[in-house]
Specification:
Helix content: 10-25%
Number of helices: 2
Low-confidence stretches: 8-12
Shape: elongated
Mean pLDDT: 85
Strand content: 35-45%
Radius of gyration: 13 Å
Order of helices and strands: EEEEEHHEE
Strand order of the largest sheet: 1-4-5-6-7
Largest sheet: 5 strands, mixed
Distance between the termini: 23 Å
Length: 91
């Protein structure tokens, strides 16, 4: 399966990871945060909000992706939490 992995700048900044799966026309944005205070839930939420606020999905849309998956990942010491964003961008 063909996939593209890259770190590209949008008009408002960089995402941590963008992945394109051309066969399925699926784009994935991953934003990672370090939870300084150990609040993994809040850090994941902030990561997902950053994907929206900085429009990291725009580049994936420009490249022809039609389905989108957003991951907010938070780490604190040896703990990690992953949250998946809503699919409101899917067309």
């Amino acid at each position: 399966m063909e996939r593209s992995f890259y770190n590209r700048v949008s008009e408002l900044g960089y995402s941590d990871i963008l992945i394109e799966i051309p066969k399925d026309r699926t784009g994935v944005a991953v934003e990672m945060k370090y939870a300084e205070d150990g609040d993994l839930e809040r850090a994941c939420t902030e990561a997902l909000q950053q994907i929206e606020e900085k429009d990291y999905m725009a580049r994936l849309k420009q490249d022809g992706m039609r389905q989108f998956i957003k991951y907010g990942i938070a780490c604190y010491k040896k703990d990690c939490k992953v949250m998946i964003g809503d699919d409101s961008d899917n067309t």
